[in-house]
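Duplicate of #3305? Posting structure anyway:
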């Protein structure tokens, strides 16, 4: 078994130690329809991929640590030369066993027949009710049958539990292999952001910048964008999920780009905001400096043991204090924070876990009151912003927002690894200091054209 397969096996063993006398069932992602009978490119379910590296639809993994004969069972599509001519290569049953390390592999058509033997002596079934309703129904029907047999059998699964409680804490801590893939996704994304600063000039369209960035994502071996790229000039930057990317950029605009590449299923998520005419206006610079300071203070909170919420709290305090200093909010900072009066300007949280999913899995809280303490190996984004939409609505007690502030939207987003001693900003290759944002990188230095 080669290195990466050994790692998948180690992940399964880690999970099986927690499953104990129970059985886990994981379903591959369904094919998603684009329109009529045309489908999107297949993208494996992240839990399924994390446990196997197996990249096909219509597959099921069963983990049954208590079973005498088989602990890792794979159900896959059988080889079918006619089907493969249309939709591509299939690993098939034999290779699924040989190459993916399964104790046994079956054709997916035998699921109904084979599955009960791995469930009937289990204490519980760990299964996530997913998007495939027919499959959900199949599991529920089987479970119902096994429950009915418990009285006579004296054994059987009395609970159906979502596996995220066991698996997602594990996914939250990234291995060296995972970090390597994330670093690669980030390196490609950094190159694309630096190219974008070079290309963004008045008169060009947002989609031109999007196209050049996404071209690089593929050119460098990435799977493509990790999420719909946001290339938002002028007031479009105040729309958090603006993805039309159709506007022609004007002199004096800021351009907010939130774009990331997916590489080997791992994702980067980077945002930069910069003036396309090389200089910030005074209001733009004041707000940019404020967001940058909020981000700096928030990143300073990323260290093992610090509760997750301290990152957001730091950003909110800097932003609220700054908005008061700039005359955009009136009042006492603590009260404004308590009453969330900053929210018309800063309405989202300061980040999220990052990994196989862009908004990666894993709990932010231990219980209703307690935030998770950060741990080495976690990767998260830190992405404060200020958005002053042209028609911003403030509570009555607040002063009207002067026209020259309106239509400015700024976000700065980095990807940060929690280390044993503090943090490492993985996205440092994309500049963010004021002076650097006012200076387009030289094509000679950045040298992207290949
Ligand atoms: N690009 C998605 C996010 O920043 O959360
Ligand atoms: Mn993000
Ligand atoms: Mn983002």
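Output from current build:
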């Amino acid at each position: 078994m080669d290195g990466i397969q050994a790692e998948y096996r180690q992940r399964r063993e880690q999970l099986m130690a927690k499953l104990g006398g129970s059985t886990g069932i994981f379903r591959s992602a369904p094919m998603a329809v684009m329109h009529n009978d045309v489908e999107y490119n297949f993208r494996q379910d992240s839990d399924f991929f994390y446990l196997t590296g197996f990249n096909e639809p219509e597959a099921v993994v069963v983990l049954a640590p208590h079973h005498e004969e088989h602990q890792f069972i794979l159900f896959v599509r059988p080889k079918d030369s006619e089907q493969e001519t249309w939709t591509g290569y299939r690993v098939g049953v034999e290779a699924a066993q040989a190459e993916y390390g399964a104790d046994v592999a079956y054709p997916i058509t035998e699921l109904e027949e084979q599955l009960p033997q791995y469930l009937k002596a289990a204490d519980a079934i760990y299964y996530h009710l997913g998007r495939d309703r027919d499959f959900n129904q199949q599991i529920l029907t089987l479970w119902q049958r096994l429950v009915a047999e418990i009285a006579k059998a004296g054994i059987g699964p009395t609970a159906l539990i979502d596996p995220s409680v066991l698996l997602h804490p594990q996914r939250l801590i990234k291995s060296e292999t995972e970090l390597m893939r994330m670093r690669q996704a980030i390196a490609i994304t950094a190159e694309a952001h630096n190219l974008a600063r070079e290309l963004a000039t008045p008169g060009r369209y947002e989609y031109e910048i999007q196209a050049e960035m996404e071209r690089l994502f593929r050119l460098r071996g990435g799977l493509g964008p990790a999420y719909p790229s946001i290339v938002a000039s002028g007031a479009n930057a105040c729309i958090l999920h603006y993805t039309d990317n159709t506007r022609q950029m004007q002199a004096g605009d800021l351009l907010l780009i939130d774009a990331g590449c997916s590489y080997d299923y791992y994702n980067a998520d980077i945002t930069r905001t910069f003036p396309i005419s090389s200089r910030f206006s005074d209001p733009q610079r004041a707000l940019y400096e404020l967001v940058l300071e909020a981000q700096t203070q928030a990143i300073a909170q990323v260290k093992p043991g610090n509760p997750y919420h301290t990152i957001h709290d730091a950003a909110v305090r800097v932003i609220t204090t700054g908005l008061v200093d700039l005359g955009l909010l009136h009042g006492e900072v603590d009260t404004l924070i308590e009453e969330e009066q900053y929210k018309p300007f800063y309405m989202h949280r300061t980040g999220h876990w990052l990994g196989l999913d862009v908004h990666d899995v894993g709990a932010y809280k231990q219980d209703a009151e307690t935030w998770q303490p950060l741990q080495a190996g976690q990767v998260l984004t830190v992405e404060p912003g200020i958005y002053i939409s042209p028609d911003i609505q403030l509570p009555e007690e607040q002063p009207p927002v002067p026209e020259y502030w309106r239509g400015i939207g700024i976000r700065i987003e980095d990807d940060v690894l929690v280390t044993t001693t503090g943090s490492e900003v993985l996205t440092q290759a994309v500049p963010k200091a004021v002076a650097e944002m006012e200076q387009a990188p030289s094509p000679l230095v950045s040298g992207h054209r290949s």
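Confirmed duplicate; merging threads. The first strand starts at residue 23 and ends at 27. The chain has a mean pLDDT of 96.
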